Amino acid sequence: MAFVFEDPGQMQELNSKIPIDKISSLPDELLINILNFLPTKYAVITSILSRRWCYLFKEVTHLDFDDSLLFNNLCALNREKSCVSFRDFVFKMLDCLKLPNLTSFRIKCTLRCECCVPESVRLWLSAIISKGIQELDLCLGGAHVGFPPSLFTCKTLCILKLTRGFTALNILGTVCLPCLKILHLHQFIVVDYNLIKGIFSGCPLLQDFIMEPLIWYAAEILPIFSAQSLRKLKLGDGKCLDFYDMERIYAVEIMAPLLQSFHYADKLAKSYIFVPSNYLVEAHLEIFIEPGDFEDSTLSRSARDLIQGVSNAKRLFLSADCIKALTMLKDELPILRNLTTLKIGCSTNPHFTLLRLLRTAPNLEELIFSEGLFQVGFKDKDTVQQNYWGGRGRVVPPCLKTRLKVIEIEHFLGLKEELRIVEYFLSNGLVLEQLIIQKWVGRKGKFKIGKQLKRLAKRWNKTVNFNELFLF
């Protein structure tokens, strides 16, 4: 059946409604760049779209294989067959690609670790390491797969990320990665501190190093030596403390003169030798201490030494246990002259330590209570009233008079003790511009407490913002 249009405008109107494939009209270089952002499975599927797309996937420079995309809808009976298909798919892609153009290779085998048998992984790595690979991301889950020595002597590798299901970190031979700038090690057990020392001596351009979590076995020292170009350092994640029952690391030694960002989340070591960096911008100290260790005075000195190592930071976070450890400290705290933002967790009674900290930070501009002023169930009211906030003879920290402009309190309980602390900041904060109270978690008295907060703000002629309090 043929349609005849008497009016030519009808033909133009019909043509305007037909969708136009604008993507296929793009140049090959741009289409290949788009395919590089897709998992390799989906990049290959585009070959059925048209003749134009038939061979474009063979030009990709980034390979991304993820076994979860394969197993999502498969029953257990097809598991073994699917694993073979997954390995064959990886091999076929390596065969059909122009390997000299390959710059990135990522493979993720988590719970289905039978996909990554040792022989297959060895062949995959042998095929790409000698072809100028620049970025390598291997997540092998619980697979018992060893890494070939050639992996740690690749001359072109710039980014290396390894995850291997809580197995021992084992490097055969020496490390020589002259172009490596980023190294992330996830879920490894450290059995020999010389391995860490060898990594830094063999990676002269290393700028970003992550090891999480920190699981030690028969290793007494964590040495971050020869890290002349290191900018970012993250040690531990604080999530696997119940996974292992191993002794606390004895000493952490860090010498990174150009360090800009430092994140430490682990048990408090017995000793820290940390040479401060003049370029440090931010430091995150998430310390965990077992309940029976709080009476150990050596821990307070360890916490002080750790803070001394980050004393040049502009932004600093201290966890609740770090505050507790400092509470036992009889010595002077390090001076934090560059500190402009301080963020602290909520300890049982951190307020005396907090005032000591504020006195060491003369240029502090922003103070954040990320977990509130008190923990739920707090009862030590007299201590708060008499000894810390409003006690006679107490010296007001200099930053309150000259620098501190913003105070933020999260997880507000609505206690009278909190109002006393708020009044202390309002009355002594001579340059305070904004006090932010948000995330109300109190069970009752919200409207009453809100009126009192507004009354205090008006009395001291300050601005108090009530986020998520719904006072009006």
Outline of this structure?
The protein is of the alpha/beta class. It has helices spanning 8-17, 28-35, 40-45, 68-71, 79-96, 118-129, 193-202, 297-309, 320-327, 351-359, 381-388, 398-402, 416-428, 446-459; strands at 62-66, 104-108, 135-139, 159-168, 182-190, 208-212, 215-216, 221-224, 232-235, 251-255, 261-267, 271-275, 282-288, 315-318, 341-344, 366-369, 406-410, 434-438, 464-467.
Topology readout:
Blueprint: H1 8-17, H2 28-35, H3 40-45, E1 62-66, H4 68-71, H5 79-96, E2 104-108, H6 118-129, E3 135-139, E4 159-168, E5 182-190, H7 193-202, E6 208-212, E7 215-216, E8 221-224, E9 232-235, E10 251-255, E11 261-267, E12 271-275, E13 282-288, H8 297-309, E14 315-318, H9 320-327, E15 341-344, H10 351-359, E16 366-369, H11 381-388, H12 398-402, E17 406-410, H13 416-428, E18 434-438, H14 446-459, E19 464-467
Parallel strand pairs: 1-2, 2-3, 3-4, 4-5, 5-6, 5-7, 6-9, 8-10, 9-11, 10-12, 11-13, 13-14, 14-15, 15-16, 16-17, 17-18, 18-19
Helix pairs in contact: 5-6, 8-9, 13-14
